[in-house]
Specification:
about 325 residues, 11 helices, alpha/beta, single chain
């Protein structure tokens, strides 16, 4: 169900209503790779962003927590005005580890609740003693640990029932894994976050999720052009696709705005990342035009490829993406 949240007198940000009734902004700020620019968080809030997406693995929760605290103390907003998403690292799925990491994340974010909390990856890795790192073998691959999805999901359910998490979900799982968790769960997943852009539109996954009444969040919605080389493909630039360039000219919009408008009209949440104030404002300026059905189809007819491969974990029996295993299992590890 799509509704709207007032942003200013002239702009409204749509939101998705999750299965538990929680209102989830349809456009938010991704913060992966932002470990040094707290001013970007404040600038985004000034512009009207109300969804901040982070994770323990991003190593920026403390920075974000401090930025939010300062912003709230300045009297601009209150905690209830901002929707925070965070995620449990894949090397902390053992129940005793999960409890410790959740406590650390709440402390770093300087909050007593997180609006949406996700299991970050389907595969579990052993954790190095007293380190926030996975154990790796001699070839650099993660060493799997023996923790079932149901075990770690029970931890999320516990915190949801306490009110510490207002919604819970998954990120980087496949359909079979999601269905198994859904069938076994007392609290059904409220959200799934996955890679999604015009090179990897996730059409089948989104249809699957909607049938289960699970909301969807697209990460890398404009192709994550600044992605690092580790665990990702070096090729695949969504901005250079001919339909994107042509539509940007036709609608007198930036290429990013065309891509984000495409996500908006498909009806789910997108979390573009930026620390550039100009780009932050541009990414929000997508509510004054609409792509025609014909132009939406032009963005569908592009060669598809996954950009995020995370090949360091392909030896795990719970690695979610068969296409990555088939393509990269016999290739040298991307470091």
């Amino acid at each position: 169900m799509l509704c709207t949240i007032a942003l200013t007198k002239t702009v409204e940000i749509p939101f998705v209503t999750m299965s538990n009734g929680l209102k989830f902004p349809q456009l938010g700020l991704g913060t992966w790779q932002n470990t040094e620019h707290p001013e970007a968080i404040k600038s985004a809030l000034d512009l009207g962003y109300r969804l901040i997406d982070t994770a323990f693995l991003y190593k920026n929760e403390k920075m974000i927590g401090t930025a939010l605290k300062e912003y709230f103390e300045a009297g601009n907003l209150t905690r209830k005005d901002v929707f925070i998403t965070s995620k449990l690292p894949y090397y902390a799925y053992k129940p005793e580890d999960a409890e410790k990491y959740i406590a650390r994340q709440l402390e770093s974010l300087q909050t007593d609740y997180i609006d949406l909390y996700l299991i970050h990856w389907s595969m579990c890795a052993e954790r190095k003693t007293d380190k926030d790192e996975p154990v790796t073998d001699n070839d650099g691959y993660h060493v799997p640990c023996n923790v079932s999805h149901s075990e770690v999901w029970k931890i999320l359910e516990k915190y949801y029932e306490k009110g510490t998490f207002k919604a819970i979900g998954l990120s980087n799982f496949n359909e079979t894994q999601i269905q198994t968790i859904y069938d076994q769960a007392e609290i059904k997943p409220h959200n799934y976050q996955g890679e999604c852009h015009i090179l990897f539109p996730q059409t089948k996954m989104i249809e699957f999720l909607r049938a289960l009444n699970i909301s969807f969040t697209a990460y890398a919605p404009i192709g994550s052009r600044g992605r690092d080389k580790s665990n990702t493909r070096s090729d695949g630039d969504v901005f250079e696709q001919t339909p994107v360039k042509e539509l940007a000219e036709k609608y007198n919009k930036t290429r990013a705005q065309i891509l984000l408008r495409n996500h908006l009209q498909r009806g789910y949440t997108a979390i573009p990342k930026s620390t550039n104030p100009k780009h932050l404002a541009e990414n929000l300026d997508i509510f004054d035009f609409e792509l025609s059905p014909e132009d939406m189809k032009k963005l569908d007819n592009i060669e598809h490829k996954r950009l995020f491969i995370f090949d360091k974990a392909i030896k795990s029996p719970e690695f979610p993406f068969k296409d990555v295993v088939d393509e990269f299992a016999d290739k040298p590890l991307t470091l």
